[in-house]
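Lecture 7 notes: from sequence to structure.

We start with a single chain of 193 residues. Read the sequence below before looking at the structure.
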Amino acid sequence: MIRNKLSVLLAERGIKATKVSNDTGIARSTLSKITNNSSEKIDYSTINTLCRYLKITPCDFFEYAPIDITKIFVSIDEKLISDPSIGEPNTWEIEAYINMDSLEGSQTFEYSGILEDFGKGPNENNVLGVYVEPASEEEVISVDLYLGDLSQTFITDITERFKNEIANAVTKFGLQGDDDFIKINLMDRRKKA
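Now the structure, written as tokens:
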């Protein structure tokens, strides 16, 4: 995976993207895509302009980790695991896998979790909750060995891609929730009481 560090570089310097746009002539929309790492490509001239403006090298601008996410699979079991007749929210099990490639080869990580539907909220969307974590303590060890040395920005990117896939699976399952109803513990498991 390769990503740019523009958002970090700007934050470290206390510079707003609007100022960079004004000072460099780079469109604000282009800077937004770059800072969010949502741009598929960045022109060499844009990289050159940003590096000169920030007084850095391209090595300072980019960050690299020798892994790639090849697939994220999310499945929601249709069988309820709760009893709504006694006031419990509708609850279903989630099973998920993240496939990654690295210099050492391919690795698949297994995750499990739940989807809860608490019913309609004030804006007519369902109030949903999703929690996903590594499926076992062995998976925690595997994930830590594989991803433990990555920067927080890479971990955040992987988590966001995972969240998007879960949100898509929930929509395909037939539920629509408000934003930010998904909690992922990418690297650890909740401590059981």
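The longest strand covers residues 105-120. Keep this in mind for problem set 3.
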